[in-house]
């Protein structure tokens, strides 16, 4: 896992997606390397979630191609999906089950067996308070639901994480904890593609940022070695492009 | 209509109306609601037209059969009067004016009866038996369409009436603007009520037609009011369920489930339960008891039967003669008349007993109206339309009276107009047989028969408990909606 | 294989946590059990009734025989009982036994005047219909299937879980397939378990039970596949269910009702009233017609009795019975046409019943048409007067 030679994990090549004659993505080209945190930044309707769903195989590209671990999705969708842990935007798990039951159910779907202790560890890692573990999730706040979903993603131990607005609904402390967690994952060799509209959050955690507008990639920013992407710079670009 | 008014702010008519208008706009824009509405009204209209034509045809048909039967009887040539007793007569049940909206048991009971001496026949030719057995689940009658399908259409149109606002979180938005829950629910109820009125329209039009055919206005109003209450029950069920659930799909599933339970399962459970708990002996079984009882009475054809010794003695005493030959009347006729009277008494006794049992069984099934508004409206509708089991019983009783009258009139002719000596020698040869006849003029004893259904007041009083059931449903649902309204606040 | 088992176990446990599915299944189980219970009760009541009728008939007959000693009177006062006993399977399919009489008592007089009488059950209850196993399978089970399967996908989509579920699951079969199988089997057993118990009590043959299980399985599968297929194509659960219920209404009401109208319109049947009127006139004319005419008509159809028909008086039993029979013969053509029309209508109605419609067959028209029996003049025939029923 700690092989540090650069390896393209997610790759989109002039990806075009049309749904009902409406262009959602237009010739989008970008890639995520192994161990990298890539943030797609964009406003509402920029095509962020559609990009994630195309990687997951829910959207078929109208033109261009997407590759996961160097393979086309057409060949072995199930296998490739098992390599990706997906965190949907508003992660509602089953409200009539407890967090633990949900985790066990979903893991079983993925054919993964985890002991209760391992699940507990994951809960602790995402800082889900212990009193909530066995409670039905309909009593959960949005942040707690998000944490449970992240715990699930962790437990799947997939090499790739696809995160849709992961920090929305989390309080500032939880966001910090989350960023640390994501960094930790990347350091251990996982690749992370997250989409967000939060400029500040993206700059805090991402190695690279792609700026998405109306389905087109209009800019890319890379972090300097051992540094962070300059928020001011991204923000200016973001605001400019938005108003353009 | 009394719907929850639990808002803190007073109910405002303009707010209610604007909620109603908004709901209608939603329905008009939603393809599903609009097409369901169109289908519903067309179905009701179609069934009203088709059933009306059918019932009018049946009415003419049976009327002419009845006239025909009377004419044939009266046109018979000179005969021995007892031949006419066995020749018999037919009585037909004319459909009531409202039966074009609810044919009720018409197709399930026979609608003609053969009336003859010494026997009470049951009705013959139930239409259902000559049918295709395709209409086991439902027929095209307007009553069925409105009782069974209209609630489904209402559900399809209105399931999301409140849950939609909750799902898209417009509810808190509306309430946040100062609209009271009461006004909101009232407005929604009013919108549903307009749909109910639309479904009712074809019924109302054809009831006016029934009015024109001679049905009493009280009955027509009560009939329509019953259906109105029934559909209001469903509108309230929809409002309540739609308010309880915060998701459209949950509201929908629960309403469909309720519909299956209340409209499809429970009416059948009701009749099955009644048949299981209170089984009625069939006519055949009672017939054995009747025959056993009748054997004791003696055969009216046989004047020498020892059973008639008593009659003989009393007649001899009455006319102060020594032998039956000396009687001024025909002893054979007297025996026939006497035994017919005794026999009819026994027959009626058994008939009443079995009708009572059958009615008890029916009433038991009708009690399920407390559990299912469909059962309540079914009974109410049939009772008001005069197509319930009670009306069939009335038909049986009236035809029995008709039978007894003409048989006894013929027996009286036998007693008074046919000489005893001629009568007992009738089988000696052709000539004696020809001699033992009476004039065909006597056949005029037959009365015209036109079956009339029960009086409006009788029908109204019979339908009280069904009315009560529907009203209780409405009160109960209103209370529930009120409680839910308080929770929504 | 173990993958399948573990998927099924997972979905089974998952289903046990879904309250509304459990409520639905429980209601199904209760209603089915009720139908089986009441069906068994009804059948046993019918058997008891037949037993009572047989005894009463025997008693009645011996009383009549004790009272009269001439052949003619014996024939006149004796009734002949005919019945169609419910089959072993009748508890599950009461069929039309509430509409058509399954018992008759007939005298050796003109038949046409007797066989249309109805000893049916309470008409108002018959109109409401009964809830038997066939009804539950044919009419209710599609609705339950629709309720169970219409939101298979839509529910997950609406709650935003769909993509997570699909991308997590190792294969779509292990998720949707297993979920559908579990729901289907649970429903199947809620419907069939009471039936199996009933079948055991009523000692239905194993082949029959297997055959019915197979029919029910295929029928339910058709509706399930239709529901799942439609559920995939549409987005919102209510929209899916609305169209499925629309299809149900089409099969349950619209097609049968239109079929009924069309068939009644195309098949012409003599009025029942005409048969009995014709027959009555013929029988009554018999009194006045020259006896030779009657006897000639009778011997034509019953040559074997031609030597038994001498009599001296104006009145004789054999002549009396002969003109009763001739009365039937006069109406025979009409009566045959009436029965043919009835039969034809029923056959024509077959095709809508063949479809996967809620009017699933299996309900056989029970004893409706009493086959006429020959006229008996010789005493020996008195014993053999049982009527055969055609099923």
What structural keywords apply?
B: 489 residues; mainly alpha; 3-stranded antiparallel β-sheet; disordered N terminus; C: 391 residues; two-stranded antiparallel ribbon; elongated; disordered C terminus
Polypeptide structure, described:
The complex is a heterotrimer of chains A (244), B (489) and C (391). Chain A is of the alpha/beta class. Chain A contains eight helices and ten strands. Chain A has helices spanning 48-55, 77-81, 99-109, 116-125, 142-155, 172-187, 199-205, 231-243, and strands spanning 8-19, 22-33, 37-42, 63-68, 71-72, 84-87, 160-164, 191-196, 208-213, 216-222. In chain A, strand 9 (208-213) and strand 10 (216-222) form a beta hairpin. The N and C termini of chain A lie far apart (43 Å). Chain B has helices spanning 13-29, 31-74, 81-87, 142-158, 163-167, 170-176, 181-212, 217-244, 248-277, 283-297, 309-319, 331-366, 373-385, 389-417, 420-424, 430-435, 456-462, 464-488, and strands at 89-92, 112-116, 119-120. In chain B, helix 4 (142-158) runs antiparallel to helix 7 (181-212) and helix 12 runs antiparallel to helix 14. In chain B, strand 2 and strand 3 (119-120) form a beta hairpin. Helices cover 68% and strands 2% of the residues of chain B. With 489 residues, chain B is mainly α. Chain C is 66% helix and 4% strand. Chain C has helices at 2-16, 19-67, 71-77, 123-128, 133-149, 154-158, 162-168, 172-201, 206-233, 237-266, 272-288, 291-301, 317-348, 350-354; strands at residues 79-83, 103-107, 369-370, 389-390. In chain C, the strands form two sheets. Chain C has a two-stranded antiparallel ribbon. Residues 354-391 of chain C have low confidence and may be disordered. Chains B and C meet through helix 2, helix 3, helix 4, helix 9 and helix 10 of B and helix 2, strand 2, helix 4, helix 5 and helix 6 of C.
Biggest sheet record of chain C: 2 strands, antiparallel
Low-confidence stretches of chain A: none
Could you tell me the number of beta strands of chain C?
4
Shape of chain A: globular
Individual helix count of chain A: 8
N-to-C SSE string of chain C, H for helix and E for strand: HHHEEHHHHHHHHHHHEE
Biggest protein-protein interface? B-C, 96 and 99 residues
Strand content of chain C: under 5%
Q: What is the strand tally of chain A?
A: 10
Strand order within the widest beta sheet of chain A: 6-7-8-3-9-10
Mean pLDDT of chain C: 77
Strand content of chain A: 25-35%
Sketch the topology of chain A as an H/E string, one letter per element: EEEHEEHEHHHEHEHEEH
* CA-CA gap between termini of chain A: 43 Å
